[in-house]
Amino acid sequence: MRRIAMLTVLTLLAGTATSALAEGDRRRATREAPSVSAASIAAKLDALGYDVRRLKLDDGQYKVSARDRASGGLVKVRFDPANGELMRAKLDD
């Protein structure tokens, strides 16, 4: 019975490790060759009414600091460089 329990635990750990390694490979590939350019991200934000203050590719994401033209408020935004999808946006304090 202990042998079956141990094999089950080892199988689950192996599956988790494989999944984590695959995720790491995806992030590394994204960091190396973004499919969406920084200029297209800046153009997207400009069309939405934001002035980009800073845009950089870091940790496999485009990290953007921008100012809303209408209200003057600052926002921090993150985009996926593989497809240009908005990942996170929050008001900057």
Explain this structure.
This protein has 93 residues and is of the alpha+beta class. The chain has one domain (2-91). It has two helices and four strands; from the N terminus they run ααββββ. It has helices at 2-32, 38-47, and strands at 50-58, 61-68, 74-79, 86-91. It has a four-stranded antiparallel beta sheet with strand order 1-2-3-4, with helices on one face. The termini are far apart. The mean pLDDT is 79.
Strands side by side in the biggest sheet: 1-2-3-4
> Main beta sheet: strand number and arrangement?
4 strands, antiparallel
State the helicity in percent bands.
40-55%
Computed CA radius of gyration, to the nearest angstrom: 20 Å
Shape category: globular
Specify the structural class: alpha+beta
* Beta-strand proportion: 25-35%
Tell me the number of structural domains. 1
What separation lies between the terminal Cα atoms? 57 Å
Q: Say how many strands there are.
A: 4
Which segments are poorly predicted (pLDDT under 50) over 5 or more consecutive residues? none
Mean pLDDT: 79
Number of helical segments with 4 or more residues? 2
H and E string: HHEEEE
Give descriptors for this structure.
93 residues, alpha+beta, 4 strands, 44% helix
Question: Secondary structure elements and their pairing?
Answer:
Layout: H1 2-32, H2 38-47, E1 50-58, E2 61-68, E3 74-79, E4 86-91
